[in-house]
Structures are given as structure tokens and as C-alpha cells.
Amino acid sequence: MLRQRPKSKAPKRAIIAGASVLFVLGGGGFVAYRAVQNANAPVTPVDPLQIGALAQGYIPDAENDELKSAAVQAYKKDQLDKAHAGAKRQLDPVDVKDQAPGGNGFPPVNFPPGSDPDPGSNKAIAKEMLASFGFGEEQWGCLEKLWHKESGWNERAMNRYSGAYGIPQSLPGTKMASAGSDWQTNPATQIKWGLGYIKGRYGSPCGAWGHSQAKGWY
Is-contact 182 118, C-beta < 8 A? Predict the structure, then answer.
């Protein structure tokens, strides 16, 4: 009597699907904002998955770092040239844009009619978001100084030497799209991305500020 061979069991295949969901402020498209509303709106706590998603691409990028360093050197050279020429006007590396820049598939966008940058309101948004990224109140002073140096807390600021954009001076600005499609005009989206960037690369605002003081960029 012939024995039937036992049927071989098909190998089990495990499919692991992981998704980090980013909260996109205002839904799809580019959304007009009111800074005061953003400042007063409750901030949804950011879980580790969200922080991981926001931190994508924050591994040290030698090419980007070189661009930032070169921009600092170009700014210093311009300062020296102006001083030698006897010019009294102080140079400012920040250029406040009349239209939000595009890039990487994003078209330039007009700012909402009647809206104006409000550094005070932007600071209030950032201060409220600190805890959701695991930062204590002691980190606020470093963050305030860091982004004052980088952009004056102006969501329309662009570095005329490197092209970095927004309150956290993302290079390029399109990186902030990972935090929301309205990254070009919404300070809350820019701040959310910036805090994720700081956490992913420097650990804390004071870590980022220390690097900025030592290198001239972060």
C-alpha cells in the first residue's frame, strides 16, 4: 500500500504594514490661516510615530550642511565688504518674500489677502507645541533665540544666501510638506516641522542653539 506524502505546508507570509499619519492642517490644498486662531487652537499631542514621520530626512546631510556653512561664509564676506566700503547699512541675510516660494512640484503661492506675519502669535504657537514634542519649558529660551536668529519668527522669511525658508529655515522649504500641505503660508505647520527637525537631529532646542552658536547654522 502506497503512502501518500504529506502535503507541504505553504510558508506563512507575514505582511507588516506601518503607517505614520501626519495631521495636515486645514485639509488638502493650501489653506488660508489666521495666526491668532492657530495660537488659541488646542495642539494635538504628537505620538512617537508622528515624531518619527516628521523626522524623516533629518539624518545629517553633508551636502545640505555644506550649503548652510557656505551661506554663513558668504554673509560674513558681504559684511566685511560693506564695512571696507564704508557702508553704514547693516546687512540682513533674511529676505521677506511677497510670494511663498515653490519647488519640487509645489507652485509658488500667494499669501492670504490681508494677512501679515505676527512673530508674537507665532511664538505662542511654538510655546504651546513644546510639550507635545517632549520638550520642557526650560527649552523655550533656546528655541526663541534660535528662530529669532534664523528668521525673526517670520513665516515668510527666506535666506538670501542659501534659499532656506520659513520660521525654522528649512532647506529646501519643501521638506516642511511632511508636516502639512500648507507649509508655504502656515506658521503652525512650519513650527511643527521645525520642532520635529530639532528633535530628530539635535535632541532639543538647546542642542540646536548650541550648534548654531558654534557653527553659525543648525
Answer: no
